[in-house]
Specification:
Blueprint lengths: L9 E8 L3 H12 L4 E5 L12 E3 L14 E5 L1 E6 L3 E6 L5 E4 L1 H14 L3 E4 L3 E5 L4 E5 L2 E10 L6 H5 L7 E8 L7 E6 L5 E5 L3 E6 L5 H11 L8 E7 L10 E2 L2 E3 L15 H17 L4 H8 L1 H19 L1 H20 L5 H7 L6
Parallel strand pairs: 1-2, 1-11, 2-8, 5-13, 11-18
Antiparallel strand pairs: 3-7, 4-7, 5-6, 9-10, 10-11, 12-15, 12-16, 13-14, 14-15, 17-18
Length: 360
């Protein structure tokens, strides 16, 4: 046994599984509020993470001091395209988003958590748990006990799986690393897949769809149209999303789920980090407010976030069903209104009703 407590159990107030943004941020805020926290990560940090790495500007209201040093590019212009064949661009005076390297970003949040006292076990997997007066958490490095357990392991969450949750709605995504000619802009194209989009960011190119299209061939064709060559490895992953209350996987009792594990992802463009941080804050508040049954309180606190995602889903259903119409809709002013959402000045609910004005 490699652990100093071999032969006995270690006790924590909370165990958080998964050191992505949702998990690290949960651990950080739990420790900031005086709890003894253990953070489990199955890989050695810093570790590679598949993601476009684009943080909407509204995310910064959640981030700890020092995040600015992680920014690779500040996005001040968006381009909306149709099938990679036509497009229009719209600049913004204020930043719309920030490009980061997920390897650095995730590790930054973990280090912030460690600085406030979180204990980190790397290369450690969750094997199971047993609910009771306290929660027995079984890991590949030993058994611990805690009052609370937060699962934040992403799409393939072991915690969610053990609670009986199944992922039913998700994007399939492909991406390759590529230095593009975009320095302060991003491009999103519709019309390529039945429900989804392709993107060009300063450091990567990708495509996402909820359907069963041949994404690799579509990605190659899309890249060729834009004068980009698919080189190196093409990575694939899944992105869950939420578009109704029943899609939100809160957890039960003193076991909560955050981030992708809870399906808290934007169904329009697949943004997850903002909702992972929002959900983490809700989870910590629920534990502090209602320690006997935080899952119920967590769901209550998350209602505004769930409502946002539900309205995003309503927009997504219209936008992807009528993609040529959506492209023209963006030209008429919907894209400019969407910028306000990215900056945290607008909500999806208000956007849903205001956007119709651009059709008149």
């Amino acid at each position: 046994c490699v652990l100093p407590f071999c032969g006995g159990k270690m006790n924590f107030d909370a165990v958080v599984v998964g050191a992505g943004p949702g998990g690290a941020f949960s651990a950080y805020w739990l420790a900031k509020n005086g709890l003894k926290v253990l953070l489990l990560e199955k890989k050695r940090l810093p570790r590679f993470k598949l993601c476009g790495g684009c943080l909407s500007a509204r995310v910064v209201s959640f981030l700890p001091e020092g995040w600015q040093g992680l920014v690779k590019a500040v996005i001040r212009e968006g381009t909306l395209g149709y099938r990679g064949e036509e497009s229009f661009s719209l600049p913004s005076e204020k930043p719309l988003a920030y490009i980061v390297d997920r390897v650095e970003f995730d590790y930054f949040l973990v280090q912030k958590a460690q600085q406030v006292g979180v204990e980190l076990w790397q290369e450690c997997e969750l094997l199971g748990f047993e609910e009771g007066e306290r929660i027995k958490v079984y890991t590949s490095k030993g058994e611990v006990e805690a009052d609370f357990l937060i699962g934040a392991e992403g799409f393939y969450s072991k915690t969610a799986d053990l609670l009986g949750y199944k992922k039913k709605k998700f994007f399939r995504s492909l991406e390759f690393q590529c230095l593009t000619n975009l320095k302060e802009g991003v491009r999103i194209d519709v019309g390529l897949v039945e429900r989804g989009y392709a993107w060009v960011f300063p450091t990567n190119v990708g495509i996402a769809s909820t359907g069963k299209e041949n994404l690799l061939e579509l990605l190659k064709d899309y890249s060729a149209k834009l004068g980009l060559k698919v080189e190196g490895k093409v990575y694939g992953w899944h992105i869950p999303y939420l578009e109704s209350k029943k899609d939100f996987h809160a957890g039960r009792g003193r076991i909560l789920l955050v981030g992708d594990a809870s399906n808290s992802v934007d169904p329009l463009l697949g943004e997850g980090i903002y909702y992972a941080l929002w959900g983490a804050r809700n989870a910590v508040r629920a534990i502090l407010n209602c320690p006997n049954n935080p899952a119920k309180e967590y769901f209550r606190l998350s209602k505004p976030m769930i409502e946002e995602l539900v309205y995003a889903g309503r927009i997504a259903r219209i936008a992807y069903r009528f993609q040529r119409f959506s492209y023209n809709w963006g030209k008429k002013g919907a894209l400019k209104t969407y910028y306000r959402l990215l900056r945290g000045e607008e909500s999806y609910k208000r956007l849903f009703f205001k956007a119709w004005l651009h059709l008149i």
